[in-house]
Design brief:
This protein is mainly alpha-helical. The protein contains 4 helices and 2 strands.
Length: 125
Amino acid sequence: FHTVNLDEHHPSCPKQKKQPRRVLHCSDGIYEEFSTDEEEETDAQQPTVDPQTLTWGPYLWFYTTFVASRGLAACDFLGEKLAWFFGITSPKYQYAIDEYERMQRQDKEEQELEEREREAEKQRA
């Protein structure tokens, strides 16, 4: 089986080349980054609203949702800072982990001390 490019056989069809959104120059070569259709759709779906042109119902709903979303963001930020201040973000059994690590270091130091004493005794004999 052979692969046939249909654009080569129909010169009447103009060849549309997609423009890269970003061109990256690396040591491996040149990479072209193209925008996807999904990215283009998300940009078109977010129209800006001018609250001065709204009637009372949509106007109140717009500002209610605006204030609620800003309030939620502020509570999220303050909650994170308060949790850090009161130490709630630390692990529940951190004291046990610290004790285990301290015991491991102490055992390792004792073993190193015993090895040094053995080597010193071997050198004396």
